[in-house]
Amino acid sequence: MTESNILRQNRGQLPGELAVTGYSILGQRKSQQDFAGVLTDRDKVLAVLCDGMGGLKGGERASKTAVTMLMREFEKAGPESRFADFLCRQAVLMDTSVHALTTADGEPLNAGTTVVAAVASRDGQVEWMSVGDSRIYLLHGDTLTQLTRDHNYRCYLEDSLSRGKITREHYEKEVRGRMAEALTSYLGRGRLEQIGRSQNSLKLEPGDQLLLCSDGLYKSLNPHQIRAMLTDNRVDVRVSGKRLTDMALAQAVKTQDNTTIVLIQYLGRKTEE
Known about the structure:
alpha+beta, 8-stranded mixed beta sheet, 5-stranded antiparallel beta sheet, 27% strand
């Protein structure tokens, strides 16, 4: 992980049961508004990824603020019985901190960021949290599953339709509109209302991979392409991660967004680093 927008902190050597890597590309954007971090110790790893918004500098500051804050608080925290609870508490605090960011003139920065974060333990237990439309996928065997649900207007419409609150006609009209991808939750609003989380600890099996990514990845590659890339290169997460971002850039049909991934693989056995 050599990218300047991916922080790596070691509180102890990465457990031999886990492998982790991260890659990021600028795409065709003028600035890098994605930021990610990985913190390892002797028995677990924290991965966090944010996709900022709010202008060239605003998005950068928002995403970096959230990532560095979570990593700092995780490093200070004592033993946790439920990491998802910790991550959700921190999401509320990160929202407040990003909302409070100001310009050099003291004016509100009005920036925001998505966030996904996961804690994986050396015994294969995983807990996660999400706000916005960055995603976490799980590759188990040859099956790729999206663990998170996007916090955007499209998903709001889907929920409203399933509950009978809107008609099919209204849904079809709105979901085709330009606001369909508008976020309904993100850090920086100052009143965080939606937080996705794991309800129970997820148990990984040997070979399973956990993928955290910004929307630049899944808006360029479909789930079948992501799954194929992870399964074809599962022997080395460094190869998988690099090829994922390279393929996203090659397959983009529009201007390629910033694209960042953090990939964790559970090996199920100790290996030499």
